[in-house]
Each structure stands twice: as structure tokens, then as C-alpha cells.
Amino acid sequence: xxxxxxxxxxxxxxxxxxxxxxxxxxxxxxxxxxxxxxxxxxxxxxxxxxxxxxxxxxxxxxxxxxxxxxxxxxxxxxxxxxxxxxxxxxxxxxxxxxxxxxxxxxxxxxxxxxxxxxxxxxxxxxxxxxxxxxxxxxxxxxxxxxxxxxxxxxxxxxxxxxxxxxxxxxxxxxxxxxx
Length: 179
Hints:
There is one protein chain. The chain is α+β, with helices and mostly antiparallel strands. It has two domains: 65 residues, no CATH class; 108 residues, Enolase-like, domain 1 (2-Layer Sandwich), CATH 3.30.390.30. The protein is 28% helix and 19% strand. It is built from six helices and five strands; from the N terminus they run H-E-E-H-E-H-E-E-H-H-H. A five-stranded antiparallel sheet has the order 1-2-5-4-3. The longest helix is centred in the first third of the chain and has 16 residues. One of its GO terms (biological process) is glutathione metabolic process. It holds the Pfam family Pyr_redox_2.
């Protein structure tokens, strides 16, 4: 990198713009070496956007690094997408943030001696209550977060969630029945 003149930052990551261009024409970087979001699916998505831009005549193609869902595959799993409550309060102000929380025990563990409650949180902003954060910990969170991440990315509001018929009995229904 040094011999080619490719710039790196103080942590050693390759410096790129939103199109994955380095400072040297014709040299690109995606994935962990850029220090953006160090997750395999993020690197794959960035690489796909780059290849679309370079080889499929889509000059504006680039990865939007905001609101990338993340899961910690622990027991129980932890899932998050979007802003945390403190981040939302800092960005929008306390008076613009409304938080909804729920706790639910899925039937899968409800009848056992090792009940595993699932705790969930929606972070909403503004009078329209746009959802800017979805967070949870509990059985199945690793699977259920993907669909809700799409809703967040599309600009869903609390009213959109309220107008969605819940799938019962599931832990995921808590996200659309929080009041």
C-alpha cells in the first residue's frame, strides 16, 4: 500500500470514499481493511455495489452504511439495528424521542423451567414516530431482526407497526403490539 501511495488512516485502515475508491485511481478497497463495519455481509454488499459500479454501468452504486443490522450470536442472541436510545436523544433531542419496551416469553420456553424472556425496544422520533432503532435480546432475535431491519431501512413508523397484524404466538409479535 505504501509503495503504491494508498492512504491509510491513523489506525492503519485504507481510506476510501463512499464509492470504495482510494486516493489512487483504479485501486479500490472494501471490507474489514477499510474499518467501516467489520462484518462479512457488509464486505460482500460493498463488493457487490463496487462491481455493479465498475462493470454494470451503475455509476452511483454504493453501500449505505447506515442502519446495518447486527447480531451477537450468544445465548440468548442480541440483535440491534439503527440508533440506540442515547444516540437518538443526542441526535434528535430528548423531547423528540419516544421509546417503547416489551418483555415476552416465547411459547418455546414458556413451559420449561428455564424460561427465557425476550426483551425488545423500539426507538422512535418525531411526531410521526419514525422508527430509528430496533433492539432486542432473547430466543429467536437472531432470526426475527432481519425483516424488521428492512422496515427500519424503508422508514417505517410506529403507526406502520401498529397497523400490522401480529403473528401469534411469536416473540416477534411484540414489535407490532407495543403500546
